[in-house]
Amino acid sequence: MKVLRFQADVETDDPRFVHLWEAGCCGLQQDGPDVLATFPEVVNVPVEGTWEDADSTDYVGRYQADLSPVAVGPLVVAPTHRHTTLEAYQRVVWLDPGLAFGSGHHATTRMALAALVDADPWDREVLDVGTGSGVLAIAAAVLGASHVVGVDIDPQAVEVARVNAERNKVRGDWRVGSIDVVEGRHFDTVVANLYAELHAELAQDYVRVMRPGSVLIVTGILDQREDLVKRALGSHLRLLGRQQDDEWVCLQWCKD
Ligand SMILES: C[S@@+](CC[C@H](N)C(=O)[O-])C[C@H]1O[C@@H](n2cnc3c(N)ncnc32)[C@H](O)[C@@H]1O
């Protein structure tokens, strides 16, 4: 593990954080005047700082220890080490992201969770492309989905998703790979928190795994690149909704 140390405040919307998440950052943590960005390995990012070896310090453990619960509609995404009090209407997703993306804190994850709640996955088959920690697929199962499938090209993420699913007593199908590993299967809800260029590339695959009436939720889209996704999906699907949080956009589509 490697850590990039640079002066910043995690509580702000520092534009440099976007580059870090896009480059595969697993977590940001405040350390005095510095922010520590954890990566599986050194990456090329336009952020000036110093790279440190994370081996001697449990940065991931410290990052996880700092996580607080996140509430989105009736869902509460909570780390297992925290005491979490729930209201009667709330459903919990116990989640330790480890090295995988998906603590529930990032705007894109929150918007995807809200869109999932809106889509109501009760008794639906749900596919989560780029499942990371499994947060979206597990949330869908907690909301009553009849079956959830999570795929990710990162084997470590798939292992984290599997462990998180067990923690939540959720049955799911967790696979290493991209959407092609579910070729031939169909889903009522497809959710993908990736990035604009990849959504455009996967557009035909999304459409292929959807049934008439299925909903597609795509996020991880920077607002300047939103048109790229709209162009790729617009000729196949009908746009149902759009949310924006800072520079991040989430789009919901329906297959008629
Ligand atoms: C931004 S994270 C989303 C994690 C989680 N779904 C969430 O919403 O918080 C994107 C994930 O997609 C995975 N990924 C990247 N390219 C992919 C691809 N072509 N197919 C499937 N997964 C991919 C990454 O490994 C990463 O775990």
Plain-language structure description:
The chain has helices spanning 16-22, 59-65, 107-119, 135-142, 155-167, 196-209, 226-234; strands spanning 2-7, 27-31, 34-39, 50-53, 70-72, 75-78, 91-94, 125-129, 147-152, 173-176, 187-193, 210-222, 238-245, 248-254. The protein is α/β, with parallel strands linked by helices and 256 residues long. It has two domains: 2-65, Sun protein, domain 3 (Alpha-Beta Plaits, 2-Layer Sandwich); 96-254, Vaccinia Virus protein VP39 (Rossmann fold), CATH 3.40.50.150. The chain has a seven-stranded mixed sheet, with helices on both faces. Strands 2-3-1-4 form a four-stranded antiparallel sheet, with helices on one face. Strand 13 and strand 14 form a beta hairpin. The longest helix is centred in the C-terminal third of the chain and has 14 residues, at 196-209. The radius of gyration is 18 Å and the shape is globular. It starts with a strand and ends with a strand. The site of S-adenosylmethionine has 21 residues, from helix 3, helix 4 and strand 9.
Features:
single chain; 256 residues; alpha/beta; Rossmann fold; seven-stranded mixed sheet; four-stranded antiparallel sheet; binds S-adenosylmethionine
Largest sheet: 7 strands, mixed
Note poorly predicted spans.
Answer: none
Backbone CA Rg: 18 Å
The class by helix and strand makeup works out as alpha/beta
What fraction of residues sit in β-strands?
A: 25-35%
Assembly context of the chains? single chain
* CATH arch. level architecture of the largest domain: 3-Layer(aba) Sandwich
**How many structural domains can be distinguished in the coordinates?**
2
What's the CATH superfamily of the largest domain, by name? Vaccinia Virus protein VP39
Strand order, biggest sheet?
10-9-8-11-12-14-13
- Beta strands, count: 14
CATH class of the largest domain: Alpha Beta
Find the CATH topology of the largest domain. Answer: Rossmann fold
**Which overall shape is indicated by the principal axes computed on the Cα atoms?**
globular
One letter per element, helices H and strands E, the order comes to: EHEEEHEEEHEHEHEEHEHEE
Q: Provide a count of the helices.
A: 7
CA distance, first residue to last residue: 46 Å
Bound molecules: S-adenosylmethionine
Helical residue percent band: 25-40%
Mean pLDDT: 91
